[in-house]
Design goal:
The complex is a heterodimer. Chain A contains eight helices and 24 strands. By secondary structure, chain A is an alpha+beta fold. In chain A, a hairpin with a 5-residue loop joins strand 14 and strand 15. The two termini of chain A are about 25 Å apart. By secondary structure, chain B is mostly helical. Chain B is built from seven helices and four strands. Chain B has a two-stranded antiparallel sheet. Chain B has a domain of about 120 residues: Cytochrome Bc1 Complex, Chain D, domain 2, CATH 1.10.760. The chains are: A alpha+beta, B mainly alpha. Chains A and B meet through strand 4, strand 5, helix 5, strand 8 and strand 13 of A and helix 1, helix 2, strand 1, helix 3 and helix 6 of B.
Chain lengths: ~425, ~180
């Protein structure tokens, strides 16, 4: 168990930073921090106070805070033209807390981002129902609503590391396809009651209003009927276009692509439709050549975000921090190893720990300056433990492409350089 | 106050369960059969949803050249986007090649996907017959229908794709078992 809180530790942390600067730092992220320290080495160097900029309709980030997603394509296809991108990844190495800023929530879009006028958007609900209905955005906003903080994760999250580990990847490259936001909308159950769904309907097709018309078959299990909702709000404001404006399906704990964006149709039936997405695309090819289908739930997962790939650390005090999540429910515990998965210590979890939401974990660590490997593993309330890479690959092979949730290891060499490795 | 609000919400939801017809008029409007038909484009593996019409692989060859080859390459290979033909026998190798011929389990899905999502810049721009023709052509590239073959709503669901048995359901959501308890 971790015994010291970060507030108890922070004075020492600052002290170490100062000594680190005096000792002379060179490159990397810490170098940037050190130069900022240098500009205010004594309080006399701190700039005088003065009236600031005019108040504004929107608050923008400080010009000193550089936070960007990065558009990428399939594994290994990075630094590409945005027109060739298929996703855009969250900069977890620069974020704190549990909630992802709205504009930095990861994006996966299959045919660009449609520009939808909500006045012209409609949701058709039909199929095995007694009363097929058409709803406008305003109709949905008048209905009883739910608000819930959940993670959404692309099934491709982690896919850079199936076959090999590029040592120069950041956690944004490896794990930037998961984010956590607060979503507000209408319970699916409420719409099911409005249209009077036939009892015999066990599957639902959800279809988007994008160019690809992305559609997925969703099994109407008790859990899904009780938890799914049609969201029009994201972190207190209307959905951003990249995330489905004016409405999307939210499926807590399930594959990101089931959370159909720009939702325009729900059709009730009694068997899966076998759409392209659930046959040719989001299925996992196993080592024997068979593909696992309808692996809909996102697994127990975690990753250390600080320190992480391409960062530079110093001997002495370091705070290890990261994120854990599970599609099965709440995270019960996160353990961290600083000796290459030989011994483990339990990390602190930031409260509140919510079901099917990311939670921040942290642990104090005194690095002795010797090369080592750091790794986290999460356990959820159902007892699911995030697998080590070796047993994970033994079960899934290296061709699955999706649903990678093996433990993420970062190596640290004698200079303090942090690199992506397989284990 | 908070718990009181929650009780009201719970009450509304419960009331909705018991008396949905009374509430239905308060939200949305009835969908007419004619407008449902406009959007009801999905095709199931049993062929349900396939429209009337037909197309041949010979017709499809030209339509493919005009609308598809720029991204998918001549003969469905070597393009900048997904490869559509070949790859059979590679799925258990270290370099699997997933194409319509090597991987897709249902021919009906091919019609559905072309109809809803392709050509990428102008989805839905092909006519029903053109969509059948391109479907036939892509299947012919994979040796699944003859080079002079024709497909329609009767024949397409009967085609047995080479990888039809290549999928294993994840046990928790196995469609064959999921809703058949007791």
């Amino acid at each position: 168990m971790t015994s010291k809180t970060s507030s108890e530790r922070s004075p020492r942390s600052a002290d170490v930073s100062r000594r680190g600067f005096v000792g002379g730092l060179s490159a990397g992220l810490v170098g940037v921090a050190a130069s900022e320290v240098a500009r205010a080495e004594t309080l006399a160097d701190v700039p005088d106070r003065a009236p600031g900029a005019d108040l504004s309709a929107h608050s923008e980030r400080s010009r000193f805070a550089k936070l960007d997603r990065i558009p990428e394509a399939t594994p290994g296809k990075r630094n590409i033209d945005p027109s060739d991108a298929i996703n855009s990844k969250t900069p977890h190495q620069k974020l704190v807390g549990n909630i992802t800023p709205t504009d930095l929530h990861y994006e996966r879009s299959h045919s660009g981002v449609p520009d939808i006028d909500p006045a012209q958007h409609r949701l058709l609900v039909h199929g095995m129902v007694q009363k097929p209905l058409v709803f406008s955005v305003e109709d949905l906003k008048r209905m009883p609503s739910v608000t819930r903080i959940v993670f959404i994760e692309c099934t491709g999250n982690g896919w850079e590391n199936w076959k090999k580990a590029d040592p120069d990847l950041t956690v944004q490259n490896t794990h930037g396809l998961v984010s956590t936001n607060e979503w507000t909308g209408v319970p699916l159950k409420f719409l099911i009651d409005l249209v009077a769904k036939d009892k015999g309907s066990t599957w639902m097709l959800a279809e988007g209003g994008d160019g690809a018309g992305v559609d997925r078959s969703i099994p109407l299990t008790e859990e899904i009927v009780n938890e799914a909702f049609i969201a029009y709000g994201q972190n207190g404001e209307p959905l951003r276009p990249a995330h489905g404006f004016p409405m999307r399906l939210v499926m807590p704990g399930f594959e990101g692509n089931l959370n159909i964006k720009w939702l325009r149709r729900l059709k009730f039936g009694n068997a899966p439709w076998m759409t392209r997405w659930e046959t040719a695309r989001y299925t996992q090819l196993l080592a024997n050549g068979k593909a696992m289908q309808f692996q809909l739930r996102m697994e127990t997962n975690s990753v250390i975000t600080q320190p992480s790939g391409t960062m530079q650390i110093q001997p002495g005090y370091n705070r290890i921090s990261g994120l854990a999540w599970s599609g099965h429910g709440k995270i019960a515990k996160v353990e961290i190893s600083t000796d290459g998965a030989r011994t483990w210590k339990q990390a602190q979890l930031a409260q509140p720990v919510l079901s099917k939401a990311q939670v921040r974990f942290q642990m104090d660590w005194d690095w002795d300056g010797k090369p080592t490997r750091i790794v986290s593993r999460s356990t959820d309330e159902q007892g699911n433990v995030q697998p080590d890479r070796q047993s994970f690959i033994a079960a899934m092979g290296t061709n699955a492409l999706f649903h990678y949730n093996a433990q993420q290891t970062w190596s640290i060499d004698e200079t303090g350089r942090v690199r992506n490795v397989l284990a | 106050m908070f718990s009181h609000d929650k009780m009201i919400l719970a009450g509304i939801l419960t009331f909705g369960l018991l008396a949905a017809p009374a509430l239905a008029f308060d939200f949305g409007r009835p969908a007419t059969p004619a407008e449902i038909k406009l959007w009801d484009i999905d095709v199931g593996p049993d062929g349900k949803g396939l429209p009337d019409g037909s197309g041949t692989a010979v017709q499809g060859k030209q339509i493919f050249a005009d609308n598809c080859a720029a991204c998918h390459g001549d003969n469905g290979q070597g393009g900048i986007k997904d490869r559509l033909a070949g790859g059979q026998g590679t799925l258990a190798s270290n370099m699997p090649v997933k194409t319509v011929g090597s991987f897709w389990p249902y021919a009906t899905t091919l019609f559905d996907y072309i109809h809803r999502a392709m050509p990428y810049p102008t989805p839905g721009s092909l006519s029903t017959d053109e969509t059948y023709a391109v479907t036939a052509y892509i299947l012919s590239l994979n040796g699944i229908v003859p080079a002079d073959g024709k497909v329609d709503k009767e024949s397409l669901p009967k085609i047995r794709m080479p990888n039809r048995d290549g999928f294993v359901p994840q046990p928790e959501f196995d469609p064959a078992k999921l809703f058949r308890r007791k």
